[in-house]
Amino acid sequence: MSDSDADDLDTDADPTSRNRLDEEASPYLRQHADNPVNWQPWDDAALDAAAEREVPIFLSVGYSACHWCHVMEDESFEDEAVAETLNENFVPIKVDREERPDLDSIYQTIAQAVSGRGGWPLSVWLTPDGRPFYVGTYFPKEAKRGQPGFLDLLENIADSWADPEDRREMKRRADQWTDAIEGELESVPDPGDAPGEDLLETAADAALRGADREHGGWGTGQKFPQAGRIHLLLRASLRAEHDETGDSSDDETAAEYREVATEALTAMAEGGLFDHVGGGFHRYTVDREWVVPHFEKMLYDNAEIPRAMLAGYQVTGDERFATAARRTFDFVERELTHPEGGFYSTLDAQSDGEEGKFYVWTPEQIREAVADATTADLFCERYGVTESGNFEGKSVLTVSESVSDLAEEHGLDESAVEQTIAEAREQVFDARAERVRPRRDEKVLAGWNGLMISALAEGAIVLDDDSYADLAENALEFVREKLWSQSEDGDAPSRLRRRYKDGDAAIEGYLEDYAFLARGALHCYEATGDPDHLGFALDLADAIAAEFWDADAGTIYFTPERGEELVARPQEPHDQSTPSSLGVAADTLLALAHFTPDDEFETIAERVLESRGQAIRSNPLQHASLALAADRYARGSLELTAVADDLPDAWRAELAERYLPTRLLSRRPPAEDDLAAWLDRLGLDDAPPIWADRAAKDGEPTAYVCRDFACSPPRADLAEALDWADGER
After folding, report:
1. Per residue in 355-406, pLDDT tens?
2. Labelling 187: which of 136, 403, 474, 566 has CA 20 to 30 A away?
3. Contact at 8 Å (CB) between 253 and 245?
4. CB 358 within 8 A of CB 313
């Protein structure tokens, strides 16, 4: 179709005759609104047009901060010849995988099955009814290094589709691939036994076997943050440490678990994954040594990594981990916070057209930024800024010299070195602020906000800093106001929208939105004692039970029952760049079951763990979140009921110091009238067992600590109550 022909078309009759992405809220989609490709959003109009024109769909899935997505756009999607071929022979659809993780999950599944690899940009050719028959990721415009050229590929597929016999073969392949997708994503294993208490040791041992003991973390190539594995190791170290056998080998095992977790945390805190100037973590590093990152910053990493850092800080007392968490929270507040309280999604890897340009330095640039030459040199030594560099002639900052070594080398006091480095870092930060900044994707996603809310709420407790609780509450209220619709009709479920952008709330929420946000609301209640946050968590859990739980299948699906009908209804049992939504849902339902009058939440979690039990046991690292949930189920939560209007300072200090991985901090007011008001706000007729018959003793704040139906005596001294719990781990 020529440009002149396109101009004459009735665009209402054929919406695919023009690029429609300028009507979308997604920053990623809008980035492609000026391409000559007639991009369509995934909607009924585009799908109907493909069916009416009887042409395949070309589906391109990516996200705003994706480097290779930008490369493919520059090479192909801005090319007139490519656009003409796409527009004439296909309905080109562009999808933001952060808005539509269901579509991404479905088509990434077949990419992995066919080629053994997935990723973004994801390029999929579909029949008009959405069944895939050809798939890949990034394609160069012209063939190179064994990859077909994108333009040649488009022409070959178009020619094959035009041939009746080839088209029949393509449709047969689409049938086979769709069956494979359904088998992979929809099948639920037969129920067995939920994993027992031995699972934690099994998981930690698997993490030991796969660990990179030289450089930290896991793998021998690219290094990704693996927060779930760190939580498994730290929890297992605590369990081994308190093993009742008294075997000295248990202490050695506990130490080894801690060492591997600490090595991973240290590599992330000191390597190039961390932004040593502005705080916050990049997505991953391209090398085994944790030096050169993929420079995009994702909200979910800057939630989940600090949660692991906080746990590591409690276990080891290492201030590096607390500092990394604090500086990440400062970054999120400064650069990813909506004026009204929610959190934005990402910062791009590129700025001024170059990947990483905002973050890398030469010695000369440091000397220009730092007023004192000696201080500049000290900064360069500390962070490995050299003339040769470690990234395209410039340096990604990494901790290259310890403060103690620098102090000894320069004859200075360690505190003086730390102060000098901190002052230099502020000057470098100010100089960096003058650079062209990476683009920010300003959509607010419910689930990712839930992850960040959890991290901040935990930060408020572990770092004993109420400012983090304030940030968490503001975000929770923002999401609740903008994206949550509370049903007033008992027959109509409440609903959560996934995305907010520029006043527009859209897209039906997925399991990760409900589960991550429910966990965040629960953690916010623990940090603040506000029962409204607990009530919101319970409402979200009710919605999970109503819309995502399938009792016949025995699973919690990723998409709601009333959601769009696609070629498969996915589940998410595996941890990937974010935790498994199935695992977080099960774990959160187990925790919230303590506040409900029936056993529905616990039953749902139990059945999920029974159906996934064998898979968790056989590969606990791939199922880290489900393994953590299974451990909570096997051991029970550590119930800490605090009967107090406000937590005493000594209690706050104790909670900050103690690593209590299955802690459920249940706050309740001492006055019975106040408790009655809470129950009314929560829609409960009677106090749940975690609150019932737990009154303040002698008018003082009182702690009740319980696990698995065994409880300490009521104590005014929280440390004494928790000492009892040490023997009940």
Report:
1. 999 999 999 999 999 999 999 999 999 999 999 999 999 999 999 999 999 9
2. 136
3. no
4. no
Q: Tokens 């080891």 map to which residue?
A: 316
Give the residue among 117, 132, 399 at the shortest CA–CA distance from 270: 399
Q: Per the confidence metrics, is the pTM higher than 0.90?
A: yes
Give the model's pLDDT for residue 250.
81
Looking at this protein, which amino acid is placed at residue 616? I
- Phi/psi of residue 564, each to 5°? -60, 140
Taking only the tens place, the pLDDT of each residue in 666-700 is: 999 999 999 999 999 999 999 999 999 899 998 99
What single string gives the DSSP state of each residue in 233-267? HHHHHHHHHT-TT--HHHHHHHHHHHHHHHHHHHH
Residue 671 DSSP label: S
Q: Which of 156, 6, 160 is nearest to 80 (CA)?
A: 6
Q: Helix, strand, coil: what percent of the chain each, to 5?
A: 50, 15, 35
- Distances in whole angstroms, Cα of residue 246 to Cα of each of 90, 112, 160, 257, 401: 68, 46, 70, 18, 40
Give how far Cα 494 sits from Cα of 353, 365, 685, Å: 44, 54, 21
Q: Is 231 exposed, middle or buried (0-12, 13-18, 19+ CB in 10 A)?
A: buried
pLDDT in tens, 447-468: 999 999 999 999 999 999 999 9
The answer to whether 494 touches 487, Cβ cutoff 8 Å, is: yes
How many angstroms from the chain centroid is the CA of residue 727?
Answer: 34
DSSP SS3 for 501: strand
40's tokens: 């369509």
How would you write 605-667 as a 3-class SS string?
A: HHHHHHHCHHHHHHCCCCCHHHHHHHHHHHHCCEEEEEECCCCCHHHHHHHHHCCCCCEEEEE
Instruction: Identify whether the C-beta of residue 346 lies closer than 8 Å to the C-beta of residue 335.
Output: no
Query: Which pLDDT belongs to residue 535?
Result: 97
Cα three-residue angle 310-231-471, rounded to 5 degrees: 40
C-beta of residue 670 within 8 angstroms of C-beta of residue 644: yes
Contact 556, 589 (CB under 8 A): no
What class, spelled out in words, does domain 636-729 have in CATH?
alpha beta
Every domain range in the chain assigned CATH 3.40.30.10:
3-186
Sheet bearing 297-298, strands edge to edge: 297-298, 346-347, 440-441
CATH code given to domain 3-186: 3.40.30.10
For residue 296, give every residue at least 6 positions away whose Cβ sits within 8 Å of its Cβ, in sequence order, or none: 65, 66, 67, 282, 283, 346, 347, 348, 349, 438
The identity of residue 599, as a single letter, is: D
Q: Is the pLDDT of residue 1 over 70?
A: no
The answer to whether the beta carbons of residues 384 and 484 sit under 8 Å apart is no
Checking 335-340 for CB contacts under 8 A at 24+ apart, the result is: 335/278, 335/280, 335/440, 336/297, 336/299, 336/302, 336/440, 337/471, 337/475, 338/442, 338/444, 338/478, 340/474, 340/478
Dihedral sign for Cα atoms in the order 165, 167, 170, 172: negative
